[in-house]
User: Fold this.
Amino acid sequence: MRKTVGIAIIALGVVLAAGVVIYGLTRPPTRPPANEVAPAATTPTDALKGELQVEGASVSKTDAQGHPLWSLQAGTKVTLNPEQKQATGKDVHWSLQAAGKTAWLVDAPSLVIDYTTGRLTFTDGVHVSSADGKQQVKVRNLTYEPDSKQLVGTGGAEFRSQQATVTGERVVVDTQAHKVKLSGGVRAHVGP
Amino acid sequence: MNMRGNQRVAIRGCGVLLGLLLIAGAAAAQTEIKTQTADLRSDSMSFNWTTNEMVFIGNASVNIANGHHATLTAPKLTVKLSDKGDRVIKLVAAGPVRMEIIGAADPQGVKARIVATAADRAEYSETTQKIVLYGDAQADYVSLPEGPDSRRAHFTGDIMEADLNTSLLTVTKAHLQVSSPLAKP
Assistant:
């Protein structure tokens, strides 16, 4: 009698285990929403293949030789829109690389990345800082032009270089020529 | 020579004239010019953070405050900043240049204004503490408040050099014209 009951329990266990395996194999996989990069996502969309790497809420771009050009950390998530070939991010922290080092840092509430042009547009109050902190820019909106490697800002621009402060309507940071240009009713103050 | 109740004297020189006339009250104040602050305006400004040099273009003006009021206007101003960006080490104004200085009061409590112009350029150096005007330089001195009784002087020359430490004005190829009120009997 005991032997029969034991065999029955074992058989029942085998049947249940088989059922779990079969259910697991036949169940369709769950996927995240099509247009969002979840924090754990590591697979780039077709539009971001190549020199853009998406990992979690981070995006980075390298040149053809694999040298880093810039990297981006988003406070929440990076949303991809393959139809418009754009990615958007909120509360972003972006760093521009030059000669293998971080050269400039940009913090902004909002960002749009255009895959086609490679242009990045930061909006809603942007703060730019050189890596050594000596140069600082505050401006309403800012665009990174990848071809010229310039940061172009518009709207209430304020530039600070240590104890010199300059304000204007438009600001251009030429990261290669090591120059900042302001225009439109420029006012400057030198000294404490 | 009498002109509107004032006495006027004209001196012409072909060589170099050392004029000792400069705003007397400005002397003490301007010896502290290393602690100055400067406010500038222009249509556009370019800053090279490698050379610490600012270039202001289009309706450029600089106002240097240091116990006196000094304003310099020109189409283009090039400003070399100190390493900390807290001082103007050198300033070059590309002409035509206009400079206006209202000095601090002298021991008698009298202030004076100097308005100087130059066709070519003006240069200021923190090291030498001099402002040099080049090219058809002219300067008008008047004691304040401006009125019939004001002391006046008009300088012209090729080059005008104002030493901010010694209050010495040096004018090359100078012409000096001075007018002052007649002494009342």
User: Anything to note?
Assistant: The two ends of chain B are 18 Å apart (CA to CA). Confidence is low (pLDDT under 50) at residues 1-35 of chain B. The first strand of chain B starts at residue 2 and ends at 3. Chain B has one helix and 14 strands.
